[in-house]
Design brief:
mainly beta, Tachylectin-2, Chain A, four-stranded antiparallel β-sheet, 14 strands
């Protein structure tokens, strides 16, 4: 039985009253507190690279297909607000940009606290990769970038690039499905990995789906 698809956000509809947005895509949707949020990758004017942005429904509003508003800067309602700067992360995610956000709420055993993170693929040198995977973390007031990625390509079959992370926190583990490889080499595979804290790998990455079995990209394009 086929499911019903409902469009909830279409860049083709425009971004008024924002005037500097070029495109928004690759959404991760979640309810935080009393509001629905959407985290997106995209292009905006006067940015060096692809960045992460957000949109939301009104406070206490039910989930709906209409009513999503991109978050504007506090000092200028016509300009979109970047989700986070690159004060700590520019060495590994500025020139190639941030791609494919994935929100997750999980337990950090080192801090003994529940944390909110948005994982993404970061490019150190080029928008086409290679990529590593890291995250922004909510500090109670803002999303904070990290000085190093949390996950890098270490297996031969990953071909030096990991991206398109999709994460959940389940049964005491941070579980991640991701894409590895290169479009330019016509080689793309799915990988899976587990971590106790979302920063260190406890279970070595496994090849989730080999090449040639109907792989469907989750977002974006690889190197």
């Amino acid at each position: 039985m086929l499911g019903k698809e409902t469009k909830i956000f279409d860049p083709a509809d425009g971004f008024a009253p924002l005037t500097d947005v070029l495109v928004l895509t690759d959404s991760s949707v979640v309810k935080r507190g009393n509001r629905w949020w959407m985290y997106l990758a995209g292009r905006a004017m006067n940015r060096e690279s692809i960045e992460l942005f957000s949109a939301s429904l009104p406070e206490a509003a039910p989930f709906a297909a209409a009513g999503w508003t991109p978050t504007a800067r506090g000092d200028d309602g016509t300009k979109i607000a970047d989700l986070s700067g690159h004060q700590n992360s520019k060495a590994w995610d500025l020139k190639g940009g941030r791609h494919c956000p994935s929100y997750v709420h999980g337990w950090d055993p080192q801090r003994k606290a529940w944390v909110e993170r948005i994982y993404y693929a970061g490019g150190a040198s080029d928008v086409w990769g290679p990529y590593t995977i890291g995250y922004l973390e909510w500090d109670g007031d803002k999303w904070v970038d990290q000085p190093a990625p949390a996950f890098t390509a270490n297996e031969d079959w990953e071909r030096g690039s990991v991206y398109e992370p999709n994460l959940i926190y389940h049964d005491g583990k941070w579980k991640m499905w991701y894409v590895a490889g290169s479009n330019q080499e016509d080689y793309i595979v799915h990988g899976y990995s587990e971590s106790p804290d979302g920063r260190t790998v406890e279970q070595a990455p496994d090849l989730f789906r080999p090449r040639g079995e109907g792989l469907r990209l989750l977002c974006g394009r690889g190197e």
